[in-house]
Amino acid sequence: MLNTKLVREILSLVLSGSYELGTRLPSERKLCQMYGVSRGTVRQALADLENLGIVEIRHGSGVYVLNQSIKELPEDVMPPEFDSVSLNDILSARKVIESACIKLACSRCDEKLVKRLEEIIDAMVENMDNLPEFIKHDMDFHETVVNNCGNPALIIAYKSISEYHRYSQIFTSLHEGEEEVAIDYHQRMLYALKKKNPQLGERAILAHLDHLAGMREKNVI
């Protein structure tokens, strides 16, 4: 029985190109820390991925990427109806949800939220040369803003597409210099939150998502 959630988490890193063919994955201990799960859970997920032909477990050496294709993966490993959800669909949904969330979060922003978002941006800066960690903190920023909007329906709506958001990375990768651009957009969003300016916040998130759409078009997606 697949531990679907963790399998998908690790699979998204592999399929996004964050780890190239033949690359060794992080240690079991590191994966435990990254996802807040037990070593037994990590081992089972890695075993499932090996059975799917995605990784190879070399005892005494580590776990290595064996395959980066989604063509032969069973449907229950991928998000539901993943093939029918386009990147434009994902970005359009994010625009609607996240623009509403950041406007609400601006009106509710306090020192605790500002401090947390500053910590996340600092972590992004520290991990500019570590794509998996950079992406993790990037998504954490957006989730933190959404979770502080005060609207449970919007929070649920965002969670319902977050997996598609993560899996959209399968079809693209950050271009050289894009890390700095991403950090700049996140700093703009943080500035709007500090100023409690909903309109500024909305403009910042929409500009960020429009930029992502433009980068993905250049990738011929």
Chart the SSEs and their pairings.
Blueprint (H helix, E strand, L loop, with lengths): L3 H12 L12 H8 L3 H13 L3 E4 L3 E4 L21 H22 L2 H16 L4 H17 L4 H16 L10 H17 L3 H21 L3
Antiparallel strand pairs: 1-2
Helix pairs in contact: 1-3, 2-3, 4-6, 4-7, 4-8, 4-9, 5-6, 5-8, 6-7, 8-9
Written account of the structure:
The chain is mainly α and 221 residues long. The protein is built from nine helices and two strands, in the order αααββαααααα. The protein has a two-stranded antiparallel sheet. A hairpin with a 3-residue loop joins strand 1 (55-58) and strand 2. Helix 4 packs parallel to helix 8, helix 5 (111-126) packs antiparallel against helix 6 (131-147) and helix 8 (178-194) packs antiparallel against helix 9. The longest helix is centred in the middle third of the chain and has 22 residues, at 87-108. Mean pLDDT is 83; it is low at 170-174.
